[in-house]
Give the backbone structure.
Amino acid sequence: MIIVRYGEIGIKGGKRREFERKLAENIGKALRRKGIEGKTKIIRGRILVDVPDEAAEIIAKVPGVVSVSPARVMEYEEIPAYLKEALKDYNPRSFRVDTRRLDKTFLKTSMEVNREIGAFVVENFGWKVDLENPELTIGIEIIGGKAYVFFEKIPGVGGLPVGTQGKVVVLLSGGIDSPVAAFLMLKRGAEVIALHFDQGLNARNVVERVVDILEDYSPEPIELIVENHFEVLKPYVSALARAKLREWTCVVCKVAMLRRAAEIAREKGALGIVTGDSLGQVASQTLANLYFETMSVRFPVHRPLLGMDKEEIVAIARRIGTYEAFLEYPYCDCPFRPERVVTSGKLEQFQRVLEALDREGVV
């Protein structure tokens, strides 16, 4: 039996039951995609999943889950006998008992259970009690008159269940940033469609691997749409060259991708576009250029990494597993990149760029 804990869902008021049902449904889907069938039961504050212990790692990756614990279910009176056998495999320098009484009709308080079970462990194993920093925590949750006993609490990703916040199109490369942006949107409950602008050199294979990794955090397979980067960008670059405005290529490249993403988002019923932009990281991500890019697209653009530095982004990429894929991502030297790029242009200058694109029929 796996105990699933959630956090933010519990304060959603009238939406709470809907969110709980969605989380339980997503857990079931995640397990089935790994070939595991299990029953879920929603109780107040917990979801119980009847599956083998090894399924805990799968469930922990489902957005909305705060933590999971593989547990054994028994009568309260059976706990001493169970611990006498189960604790033979442990030899900690210190321990504590941590009881949560979800069933308030149970006659003993949490503190009384802690003292009783703690005294039993000291008497039988001689371990030292440490309430602040124990080497081993014996967890007990009283649910429906039964005791659920466990020895580990595996952290989940937290957030909201995927599918409760609509759908977005994510500009996805095999680099570090955009996969993290996609993960953060999944964590906040949004369904993700991945849009990759392919530059060749095995980049697509890496992106497909990234999508496979991200699917561990999604209850449904993630749709991957691949566009030819050069075909999308070529008419824009040609128009800039004729207007002698090639220094705007990097900004206009992002405009071209955002415009195509907006077309796809409308077709797919998505409510926004997501990018891996981090403020000031590269030329196209200065505040001025982000402003120009956004004003050129009549569609919401979301940038979940905007205020993060590279170290913060890398830490998340390592944690979710996409950083290793990035190490295989080929270096793509864009043939359209000019010698000089605009990092802080003026609005009136960018207006001339848009006019030049309009004159060439690039919309």
The radius of gyration is 26 Å. The chain has two domains: 2-155, 167-359. The chain has a mean pLDDT of 91. The first helix runs from residue 16 to 33.
